[in-house]
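We close this part of the discussion by returning to an individual protein. Part of our work consisted of pairing the sequence of a single chain with a tokenised description of its backbone. No coordinates are needed to read the tokens, only the vocabulary itself. The amino acid sequence and the backbone structure tokens for this protein are reproduced below:
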Amino acid sequence: MNTKSYFFQSFAIVALALVAFIGFKQILPDKIFSESKLDSKNILIDSLLLESVAEDSLSLDKDSIAKSEEALNGQKIVFDQTEGIEFPSETFENYKGYQYLISFYEKLYQLEKNPQNKVRIAYYGDSMTDGDLIVQDVRTNYQERFGGNGVGFVSITSESAASRGSVKSTYSKNWKTQSYLNVKRPTCPFGVNGHVFFANDKSNSTWVQYEAGLNKYSTSLDNATLFYGRSSKTGKVNFIIGKDTIKKSLSPNGLVNTLKVSSGSLKSFKANFVQADSIPIYGFNFDNGAGVHVDNFSQRGNSGLPISMFNADVMRAFNNSLKYDLIILHYGTNVLNYGTKNYSWYEKGMTKTVNKIKESFPGVSILIVSTADKSTKYDLEMKTDSAVVPLMKAQKHYALEAQAGFVNLYTLMGGDGSMIKWVDETPAKANKDYTHFNQRGAKAIGNLLYGQLNKGYEEYKVLREKRDAEGTKPKPVRKARPDSVSVTKDSV
């Protein structure tokens, strides 16, 4: 009898302790538990990722995966000429795919010859690029070399608005937002940023305000332009610039419409939307019209799969105005934690994403950035998560199949165990979650990414000048394929 009593008393004590811990955790300082600046209440997981994981059997045939990896690593990837240029052959192990970035590199080459030209990059990512981390450093590197001023396209609302330094934005709390992470059938099509916003509060003012940031090459808001969608009803927007108010009408006739706030540069402005509740609002673009511009389309919790839901007609309408030359897909953080090392389901889904991009932005170069290193505790010791390398190889596989360039961020930052070093070194370059980079680390990653892209560009210039010197006649542009490697969807 006493034994049972002691058991129930012990159980009650443990239960009460657990409840107390959970309760106190809510009011204790966050830093006790994590050094990450991410606001977990705003972290979303996209519905397509959850569906893909649920449908996947999570089976793992280690023998077939090992054999296919061995076959891939043992063969050369030989490229067809594009415009008379052929990069040296590669192996799957060291694959970078500069050959598939030729159209982007040619645009840079023309920009270098004529500074009035323009090159534009769309950088899609997850929480790794939240608050313009990494992307702002890629942008700065390109603008430092090739010219350009401005932060590019900025959404109406954002979870990271308060932490972003490259542009400051505040907004009223009565915006209705639909995101491609958790809405399959939006009221109106998503914009190029994966969101659509509605000023649907008729009783209160719905507004957004922007102020130029302090980052280099973003100290002014150049050629501020509003992007909005189609509607059967018109609306109005009042732009408040200093002491002046400029009243303009919204004419939502096209799939995508633009409205310039004013010509030239601004330091700040406020936009009040009036009787515009039925009009889809997408965001504002800021650039000076020359040089390189890089748009950051980050979204916490994103796997990359939701891009496959884009409306291609709407994307082409955006592209008519923005004219992209390179689209970067930087994902992986939200794909690692689902108890599997067989990512064939993710390859299949991301192949749909890449195909949607090709349909939406014809002729654009595509770059896949792999997952970074991530550490997990095994037997009381922090080690590289066992899912990192399989996911990285799967990302490399679909990059090769999709004829996209590839950045192996895992090896670029140091490979096995590198995240531990980035966290533990002084000063630290990553947070204690052993997943996300801090400001210092993000800058280092941005520089590494730019470095690899620029190395490919320098090689391209040599090959191009050699072609011109030899008088090689460029062949018609055709779809390039690796000659000597056969890749199947279940290879990795």
